[in-house]
Amino acid sequence: MRRPMVAGNWKMNGTRASVAELIESLRVQALPVSVEIAVFPSCLHVAQVLGGVDDKHVAVGAQDCAAQNGFGALTGEVSAEQFAEVGCEWVLVGHSERRLVLGETDEVVSRKFLAAQVGGLKPVLCLGETLEEREAGRTLEVVGRQLAQVLDDHGIAAFESAVIAYEPVWAIGSGLTATPEQAQEVHAAIREQLSRQDRQVAEGVRLLYGGSVKADNAAELFSMADIDGGLVGGASLKANEFGAICRAAGN
Ligand code: PEP
Was 212 annotated as part of a binding site? Predict the structure, then answer.
């Protein structure tokens, strides 16, 4: 039985004041203990959030980490070890905004996935196709290729402590959500690809859906057999909405 998970990606949002308000509003939410919950603030606000949510069962993650491990001369980067040392548990790897806007290749994403695990973080590996790729009928090929890079480089055992998020690029921040059936088709294909390497590991990996998840569509998405929760962007900045999504995952 896979424990559902809801992750909130706060992206490049927030000031100290607005983050303090969001933490306060999260603290008064009724959050189901059956659901693993994590938030991913900007790296500037990680310490503030860790200090603010520590008596709630909300874990904190980073939105990215360096592909290099440890400490040293790499201006502007933050290593998995540094995030882990301050108390982060998770890190997003390969979010489409990093792949498409910042030019991260499958190979870089794969290196970051390994760096995360070596440095003591659990990666949430993000996969997803663009609208053009979907319209060309290439969704499963693209997502399969993105997953294969990590699977081939690090093996199936690396997925025992990782989560995968399927996030169609056309659904992110657009208000266009994949239908539960569209999302389920891709999730099933991801699990099948993992299963070809090791059935037991594949059955245990949590597959989150991301792309305009909201309180009013979460329950329907989470009811699908291979959707184990959500990676939530915009709606995670509103505590009430995020709380309702977490409760939907717990039902
Ligand atoms: C995301 O960026 O990970 C995301 C899912 O965003 P949104 O929920 O705003 O579509």
Answer: yes
User: What's the CATH code of the domain at 59?
Assistant: 3.20.20.70
Q: Is the pTM higher than 0.90?
A: yes
87 is in an annotated binding site: no
174 alpha carbon – ligand 1 mean position (Å): 9
What interhelical angle do 16-27 and 239-250 show, nearest 10?
Answer: 40
Which residue has the least CA distance to atom 7 on ligand 1?
233
- Residue 67: exposure state from Cβ atoms within 10 A (0-12, 13-18, ≥19): buried
Residue 95 known to be catalytic? yes
Pick the atom of ligand 1 nearest to 171's CA.
10
What are the E-state strand segments in the chain? Answer: 5-9, 36-40, 58-62, 90-93, 122-127, 163-166, 207-210, 229-232
Ligand 1 pocket, CB under 6 A: 9, 167, 172-173, 210-213, 231-235
* Burial of residue 33, with CB atoms counted within 10 A of its CB: 0-12 exposed, 13-18 middle, 19 or more buried: exposed
User: What residues have CB less than 8 Å from 134, skipping those under 6 apart?
Assistant: 168, 170
Domain of residue 210, residue span: 5-250
Is residue 132 part of the annotated active site? The answer reads no
Query: Based on the structure, what is the number of domains in the chain?
Result: 1
Give the per-residue pLDDT at 55. Answer: 63
Q: Atom 1 (ligand 1): residue with closest C-alpha?
A: 233
Average pLDDT, consecutive stretches of 10 residues, N- to C-terminus, the chain (251 residues):
97 98 94 96 97 85 98 98 98 98 98 98 98 97 98 98 98 92 98 98 98 97 98 98 98 90
Q: Is 96 annotated as a binding residue?
A: no
